[in-house]
Amino acid sequence: MNKTYPQRFFDGIPSDSRKLFSEERDCCKECTAWLRCTRRCVCVSAVALFVLGIIAAIIGLAVTFGIPPRTPVNRFCVTSNNRTGFLCDDRESCIPAHQVCNRIGECANGEDEQETLCSDLPNSLPGYLIFRCSYPSYWIYADKRCNGFNDCGDCSDEMGTLAGCPPCGPQWWSCTPVFYEYCTCVPRSFCRDGVQHCTSWSDEYICMR
């Protein structure tokens, strides 16, 4: 025969219930200390709501004050003489490509000399700032391409499809120069100066300043 044992009461509350309430109070104390507790504890929900509230407040402030997300800065620009340049933080100053990482701060905040930009030349530079010569280990700054001078050393920056240079401008005379400093054009100031610069001598007999 099963016996039924009467429950003991304290102040009108069963002793088992008192034990349960005591465990829940202990659980809530643990919750306030950011410790794990049972599902019966209401403190877990309160702490979770508190954390979510903080996150929501941060997002709300960002939206309210118009804080933009961080995006990569596009610093490509064109200089006044139509050459490739580097855009400074002021979004107005455009310095020539060859002035980047020259150990002289051309931009007001020195962003053209940042370590992340200059630590491993030319690999650390954006692709638009450099020109690869026909020799893989040789490179020049992009604004040196098609400037009339043999900066690569093999004229690959002035001749052929790799460079894609336009015809000589009005200040130049088109020919094949004798001196390796030039490739397909010589300055018109060399015309009729008594010194041969073109293999055909056209700079001395045909060219006019």
TrEMBL record:
The keyword Transmembrane applies. It is a single-pass membrane protein. Residues 166-205 form the LDLRAD1-like C-terminal domain. One of its GO terms (biological process) is vesicle-mediated transport. The keyword Hydrolase does not apply. GO terms for cellular component: plasma membrane. Keywords: Disulfide bond, Lipoprotein, Membrane, Receptor, Repeat, Transmembrane, Transmembrane helix. Its main location: membrane. It is found in: Membrane. The chain crosses the membrane at residues 42-67. Coiled coil: none annotated. This is Low-density lipoprotein receptor class A domain-containing protein 1. It comes from Alligator sinensis (Chinese alligator). The lineage of its organism: Eukaryota, Metazoa, Chordata, Craniata, Vertebrata.
